[in-house]
């Protein structure tokens, strides 16, 4: 089953796009400092971003065609932002006090991670969803390799009341990541449907993307600030399952044969359970039902395309 993404046509009348490239510290004709906002559009759709200064009359209209990267010079300040992409829109605020890079991800799937300073990854289906685009690198974390720091106003902070067990997935049946003592403080970035809080542990995870980068705190295991109740509720992987996390578009075939019909195309940020493999190991059978696509297709992908997470050793041989 292949899908067509919605097309959003935006017509702008009498308002030119502001596309002057500026370096941090440049000065415009009025003597204001300009900062560069570099926007990379990987969404597959046109991105249209309006920035309206909160304390001035300045309004910027930024247009980035699909597949392109554009740089814009913008005055320092705090802006109301409205973004149109992927047939949808989102509003929030954007702080411009440094050079920024915004990367809009493919319309299908989820954002791989929360981004980093000047490299914010944006996806309208799970971020910003009306939230502020603050740049939070890693987590406010003690004892797990994080550097700590000052939390963002209005952000979510979790503090352990007693010894807390942290899991790789939001389930008591999942693999244990770490056990920490009372006073552990972290900044969760998401919630699961069953009430767990997920945070990025600030460790190298080159192959993991999206919710697979998060570690999970059980409900009631600590005190949380009010900002935690507005965290997005995201799809999460099930405990005990091996998942494929493709890093690029991957065809799901009817049978382990390139000449067989394509049932589905998995995009980066879309996940499927790995059921087993052929005797030769060249093909892997996947079930999209436990994934995040909404499909229940069971098919085959080339083993060379897979990027797996979870208990993936000892999977059965299936088929030829």
Relevant terms:
320 residues, 35% strand, mainly beta, Immunoglobulin-like, single chain, five-stranded antiparallel beta sheet, SH3 type barrels, 24 strands
Task: Give a structural overview.
With 320 residues, the chain is mainly beta. Among the domains are: 26-122, Immunoglobulins (Immunoglobulin-like), CATH 2.60.40; 243-309, SH3 type barrels (Roll). The chain has no helices and 24 strands. It has strands spanning 26-27, 33-41, 47-53, 59-64, 69-75, 77-85, 88-96, 100-104, 120-122, 158-160, 164-167, 176-180, 185-186, 190-191, 197-199, 215-217, 222-224, 243-244, 250-253, 262-266, 272-277, 283-287, 298-302, 308-309. The strands form seven sheets. Strands 1, 2, 5, 8 and 9 form a five-stranded mixed β-sheet that branches. Strand 14 (190-191) and strand 15 form a beta hairpin. The protein is flat, with a radius of gyration of 22 Å.
List the helices and strands and how they pair.
Blueprint: E1 26-27, E2 33-41, E3 47-53, E4 59-64, E5 69-75, E6 77-85, E7 88-96, E8 100-104, E9 120-122, E10 158-160, E11 164-167, E12 176-180, E13 185-186, E14 190-191, E15 197-199, E16 215-217, E17 222-224, E18 243-244, E19 250-253, E20 262-266, E21 272-277, E22 283-287, E23 298-302, E24 308-309
Parallel strand pairs: 2-8, 8-9
Antiparallel strand pairs: 1-2, 2-5, 3-4, 3-6, 6-7, 10-13, 10-17, 11-12, 14-15, 15-16, 18-21, 18-24, 19-20, 21-22, 22-23
């Amino acid at each position: 089953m292949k899908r067509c993404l919605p097309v959003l046509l935006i017509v702008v009348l009498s308002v030119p796009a502001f596309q002057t490239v500026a370096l941090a510290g440049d000065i415009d004709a009025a003597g204001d400092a300009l900062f560069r906002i570099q926007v990379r559009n990987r969404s597959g759709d046109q991105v249209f971003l309006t920035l309206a200064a909160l304390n001035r009359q300045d309004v910027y209209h930024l247009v980035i065609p699909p597949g392109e990267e554009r740089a814009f010079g913008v005055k320092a300040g705090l802006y109301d932002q409205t973004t149109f992409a992927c047939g949808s829109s989102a509003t929030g605020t954007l702080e411009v006090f440094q050079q920024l890079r915004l990367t809009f991800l493919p319309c299908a799937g989820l954002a791989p991670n929360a981004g980093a300073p000047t490299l914010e990854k944006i996806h309208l289906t799970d971020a910003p969803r009306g939230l502020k685009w603050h740049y939070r690198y890693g987590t406010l974390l003690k004892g797990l390799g994080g550097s700590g720091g000052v939390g963002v106003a209005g952000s979510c902070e979790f503090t352990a009341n007693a010894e807390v067990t942290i899991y790789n997935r939001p389930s008591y049946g999942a693999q244990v990541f770490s056990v920490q003592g009372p006073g552990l403080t972290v900044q969760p970035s998401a919630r699961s449907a069953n009430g767990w809080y997920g945070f990025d542990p600030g460790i190298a995870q080159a192959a993991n993307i999206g919710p697979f980068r998060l570690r999970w705190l059980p409900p009631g295991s600590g005190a949380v600030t009010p900002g935690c109740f507005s965290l997005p509720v995201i799809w999460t992987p099930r405990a005990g399952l091996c998942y494929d996390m493709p890093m690029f578009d991957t065809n799901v075939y009817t049978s382990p044969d390139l000449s067989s019909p394509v049932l589905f195309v998995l995009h980066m940020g879309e996940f499927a359970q790995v059921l087993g493999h052929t005797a030769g190991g060249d093909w892997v059978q996947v079930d999209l039902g436990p994934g995040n696509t909404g499909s229940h297709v069971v098919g085959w992908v080339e083993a060379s395309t897979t990027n797996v997470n979870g208990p993936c050793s000892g999977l059965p041989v299936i088929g030829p």
